[in-house]
What we know:
The structure holds two protein chains of two kinds. Chain A has helices spanning 10-27, 36-46, 50-83, 85-100, 107-114, 118-142, 146-154, 159-170, 172-197, 201-211, 215-247, and strands at residues 2-3, 6-7. Chain A is mainly alpha-helical. Chain A has a single domain, classed as MetI-like fold (Orthogonal Bundle). Chain A has a two-stranded antiparallel sheet. Chain A is globular and about 70 Å long. The radius of gyration of chain B is 18 Å and the shape is globular. The two termini of chain B are 25 Å apart. The site of magnesium ion has 3 residues of chain B, from helix 1. Magnesium ion is lined by residues 56-57, 170 of chain B.
Amino acid sequence: MILFGYRVPMMASLIVWCVIWEVVGRSGALFLIPPLSSVLVAAFAMVQTATWQSAALVTLHSFSVGMALAILVGIALGVLMGRFKAVDDLFGIWVNIFVSAPLSALVPVLMILFGIGETTVIVTVFLFAVWIIVLDTRAGIQHVPNSLIEMGRSYGASPFALYGKIVLLAALPEILAGIRLGLVRGVKGVVIGQLLVSIIGYGELFELYSRSFDMENFWALTIILFAAAMLMSAAIEHVEKKVDYYAGVR
Amino acid sequence: MAHLAVAEAAIPASETVVAVRGICKRYSEVEALRLIDLDFPRGKLTTLLGPSGCGKTTLLKIIAGLIAASSGEVRVNGKPVTGPGPERAFVFQDFALMPWATVMRNVAFGLELQGMGKAERQSIARNYIAEVGLTGFEDKYPHELSGGMRQRVGLARAFAVNAEVLLLDEPFSAVDEQNRRKFQEDLLRLVDKERKTFIFVTHSIEEAVYVSDRIVLLSRRPGRVSQIIEPRIDRTASPDAIRRDQGYLDTVEEIWQGLKHYVD
Lengths: 250, 264
Ligand SMILES: Nc1ncnc2c1ncn2[C@@H]1O[C@H](COP(=O)(O)OP(=O)(O)O)[C@@H](O)[C@H]1O
Ligand SMILES: [Mg+2]
């Protein structure tokens, strides 16, 4: 960011917004926005409560299971679509519809199918995350240089070695990008799923705090969630940078 | 013409390793190769030379078993080719190195795929890394190397699997001119030392004459064999002497005359 000819680091703009939040909160103009400082105090107190910890564990569990399934299925389907035209023709239209469809609308249907419980949340995470992983994996596979594949074949690679030692690694930058985007969508999925099911984990807490207009705790919950999502995405991005570095020249 | 021996007349009766019989190749619309018949003698470096798009890469990959011919047959040591095999190794025009693997792993990769143990394959790879002049670069990644050095890695990988036949598709085309000459000299040294059969593709007449025992001239698409030339050059002379040698210059001129009408 450039301001009055000076380079201002990203952190600086974040601090500006924090200050604005604090000022608006202290002025008391908006009932929905308490000062940032009291939100942070609330967050600090909240993470020490058993209620939050068990809610976080339940949430983390649904999220991890849903994401693990999304990554496995997403990569497998993406590889098949990238390599075989028939599979691509068969699934392409659905993947492209679902990747941009308003999936939240499906959650009530999922509730009918999977009951009002964790299974529905896991399926929601899966459905939110899987499509972008499929698409990015497919793109990665299609961009693997043909000569690398011919190299593997000419030096006698079995189909298994060809994928394990060459194709998947060559597509790794795109696959990781897909997983990173999938993670962010998965966080959305776990919150929306829990909100709509509304009796477990983070969703239950959101419901509780917003119903009682406990805004400090409500925002504290939100900030923790955002921070967790950003941390995960930053961690993957870090790995991506490393991989891109090695994949710089093919 | 004292330095040239044209076609069948002068081919010594040596043993054929790779026999190409009646190879034709069509890509849906394009006829790339028409009825290619060729014998590649053991221990010789044979060059496929022809204008861009005449089917040199196609023919080399058919011999490698990487693509199927539309008709015809390739035999290696009398056995029909149905796919890639350990007696043939390929050097790719764009190097085809794995960017995530070190020079050591890339060079040893053919052996790794064969299931050879790590210590054994690394000691073989180290030997060929030295042979192509890359000692000290074992732990570097491809993006840390120049184009010429990357192709040396590709060459070392092909030598490491100890194949009888080496197939090289314009290996020096992405290498700058100074390094290219050095590379050609190194290749000749390795050809002499390794006693293998080389099939070499290039579109550079000078390069072909400099490195080849035999030159197969291919006509413009659809590729056919138009002429076979054996440059008679004293390879014991220094590289610079060879490049000034009258036989060398005459052969270059002879081939240029033969190819010229394709360019017009
Ligand atoms: N996979 C392919 N599909 C269609 N046409 C191809 C394919 N590969 C090569 N060709 C065509 O076949 C001809 C010969 O190609 P190639 O063997 O690469 O020539 P060279 O290596 O001599 O330049 C060219 O005209 C090229 O366009
Ligand atoms: Mg070519």
